[in-house]
Design a protein that fits this description.
By secondary structure, this protein is mostly helical. Helix content is 76%, strand content 0%.
Length: 225
């Protein structure tokens, strides 16, 4: 009887060990990409900054392709899932930020917003949602489960927007909304749309004296109007 039970126990330990290795690998991947993002945020514009930005982007794509998560799990396979409620709530948030910007007009005008910068930001917003949801959230959800992953990812997203006080707070609150919608509907496309709408609304309505041209990190500290 004892000899028959040993293989079963050994196999169980192997499964647990494999799961632990997967969890550790996911955490290391998130930490590496997030570390590169922070380096990019806190280094001046130039060759090093460009290299780190490209390294973070390419590493995220490569790890996503070789990772254990399906297109559906990463929110890439159902472009209409939850689109109406996500966009509907997003428009309410856009209206709220517009009202907030109106009450802050005494602090100065918002920044100019040329069209070419607007569409570039829209693409960047979708890319951010891929990094935050399709890459970071799915890995942290595996390790910490959904509720803790929502708070952890939202905190990381806010940290990436330090030291801008407005963007740090709004990023944390916005990331909670994005993560909750992603957890329920598994679809980054409407999240990218809402993210772009919110970011452009902040830029177009909030005083530039507070926003510093929507810069974060070293760029926020070095900003001069």
């Amino acid at each position: 009887m004892a000899s028959q039970s040993k293989p079963f126990i050994s196999a169980e330990h192997e499964v647990l060990s494999s799961a632990q290795v997967t969890d550790l690998s996911g955490l290391l991947e998130v930490a590496t990409v997030f570390g590169l993002i922070l380096i990019a945020v806190w280094t001046p514009q130039g060759h090093l900054n460009a290299f780190v930005c490209w390294a973070a982007a390419l590493l995220t794509v490569a790890l996503s392709i070789r990772g254990p998560y399906s297109a559906r799990e990463m929110g890439l396979a159902q472009p209409f899932s939850g689109a109406l409620p996500t966009i509907g709530i997003g428009m309410i948030l856009v209206a709220s930020i517009t009202a907030l910007g109106y009450f802050c007009r005494s602090l100065g005008p918002p920044q100019p917003l040329p069209w070419e910068r607007a569409w570039q930001y829209a693409f960047w917003a979708l890319l951010q949602q891929f990094i935050v949801q399709s890459f970071m959230f799915v890995r942290l959800e595996t390790v910490f489960r959904s509720q803790r992953a929502v708070l952890l990812v939202s905190t990381l997203f806010a940290v990436a927007h330090i030291p801008s006080p407005v963007l740090t707070i709004l990023s944390f609150l916005g990331a909670i909304f994005f993560c909750l919608m992603f957890r329920r509907y598994r679809n980054i496309y409407p999240l990218g749309f809402v993210h772009a709408a919110l970011g452009l609304t902040i830029a177009a309505t909030m005083p530039d004296s507070l926003m510093h041209h929507m810069r974060v990190g070293l760029g926020f500290l070095r900003y001069h109007p």
